[in-house]
Amino acid sequence: MTETAAKPQLLDVRNLRIEAVAETGKRLTLVDDVSFTLNSGEVLGLIGESGAGKSTIGLSALIYARTGCQITGGQIIFRGHELRELGIEARQSLRGAKVAYIAQSAAAAFNPAHTLYEQVCEVALQHGVMNPGQARADAVRLFKELDLPNPETFGNRYPHQVSGGQLQRAMAAMAMIGKPDLLVFDEPTTALDVTTQVEVLASFKKLIRDHGTAALYISHDLAVVAQIADRIMVLRHGKMVEEGPAARILQQPSMDYTRMLVAERVAAQGSNFVAPHAEVDKPILSTRDVIASYRSGPRVIDNVSIDLMRGDTLAVVGESGSGKSTLARVIVGLLPRQAGDVVFAGETLPPRLESRSKDQHRRVQMIYQMPDVALNPRQTLLDIIGRPVAFYFGKDRRAVRERVEELMRQIDLPPEFIARRPGELSGGQKQRVCIARALAAEPDVIICDEVTSALDPLVADEILRLLRRIQDQTGVGYLFITHDLGTVRRVANKVAVMYKGQLVAYGPTQQVFNPPFHPYTELLLSSVPEMRADWLDEVLRKRRKVIR
User: Fold this and answer.
1) What is the tens place of the pLDDT at every residue in 65-75?
2) Options 3.40.50.300, 3.40.50.720, 1.20.1290.10, 3.40.50.970; CATH of 285-512
3) Angstrom distance (rounded) from CA 365 to CA 467
4) pTM (whole model) above 0.85
5) Pairing of strands 285-293, 214-219
6) Structure confidence at residue 118 (pLDDT)
7) How many C-beta neighbours within 10 Å does residue 156 have?
8) Which helix (H) or strand (E) holds 481?
9) Residue 409 confidence (pLDDT) above 60
10) Measuring CA to CA, how many Å separate 543 from each of 27, 174, 495, 536?
11) Looking at residue 192, what DSSP letter applies?
12) Residue-wise pLDDT tens digits, 2-28
């Protein structure tokens, strides 16, 4: 964070109003009378739940509104110029050169057919601020500043050849090469594991400080925003709730909604551990010395053995590439194991999905990270949730509808939503539909693969409570894959810590998360952001002492 008192004003947003326009002509207000200022070199954090208007406000700084949306009121004054009065060419000249955008999903933002050099240098070449040689040299300089490996040759790679954290930093280089005065960070670390998030946050903070760039930092995680923002503005339902210095918002929030956000984040840090159940029965699901790899490559799962008891939650944690989701793919048969056994209800499952029986498929279900990808946008909720009911139990249309309505009530969605499609639901509602679809098969085990990582904290907490209630009602066991250790404390009886395809720690959550730690477990725990502004600097000092 920087000292901004004597710096000139860069951005002045006054009474901003943004509306969505439906095909029927009906208007919905997304941003309602929001005003704020931003000085050069200053960082303003935008905080709020899904649908609060954070990203919509951030994009307005580029004089951009998503399809179906319009900036219908207010002023956006940048360096003394009213941006809403600019023509199309002037707006295009602004984007990338004066105001740049860093998206949440770097994988979706990069073109897989072009090298990183081509894409990072494109902005500078398009705006004519550099020739190709200068742009390439500047890209290498930015790669060095962002601590990317082998900066002289890093740009020769394609997007799929680098990690998620490296790609996110490459996007920062792409945004900075045009030397903008303002950066808009739109949830840039939400999809990253905690260890990678620390590295990326540190790179962003250093970039802002060294270049004196102003920034709007959009997030739903107060602890993350606390590491980088000078001021925080809290939003809800498109309106500003309160705004002030970051320290004051974190320590002395004045509005009830802000106090609720702070309380939820603090509770996530200090939750009591879930007590392990007495293991009097045989596990419902076990892996025994499982080994797996992709084609003839190195082992991605290396002698992993775990047990899940009926009615328990076993969390599998680790950084990106540690093997968490790959283990899930092995369990369900999407990636056939090379050695070892997967035992379900006392029966060894065939390695391949297609070799398993219909009932074996039914009894182990998955809920995926991104409901937008997992749900067919053309189908109604009746079709989506009803399909496993008809497929596994052979029920007729009337019985399917009755069962879907029952499941809708179970996940706290109104039965009248049955005719809606995914595009008419919020992020949290879509994830509830994914849960209902899994429950429709009446499984014994549900694999939850990062099911709350894309949700804001309040909605994520609602989903966790729902999953716990369903578990109490049905006795279903959860294999809970996550990089959020705060979530692990709240939901898991046991935890398995994975690193490079191997188990490095395994046991009751309280035991694994208390000293003596395995060094990697300690690294994970120390990487969970805390609600204080000096946390990032402190953890970086500690990380330099850890030998990886």
Assistant:
1) 988 889 999 99
2) 3.40.50.300
3) 14
4) no
5) unpaired
6) 96
7) 12
8) strand 477-481
9) yes
10) 50, 27, 23, 10
11) S
12) 444 567 899 999 999 999 876 667 788
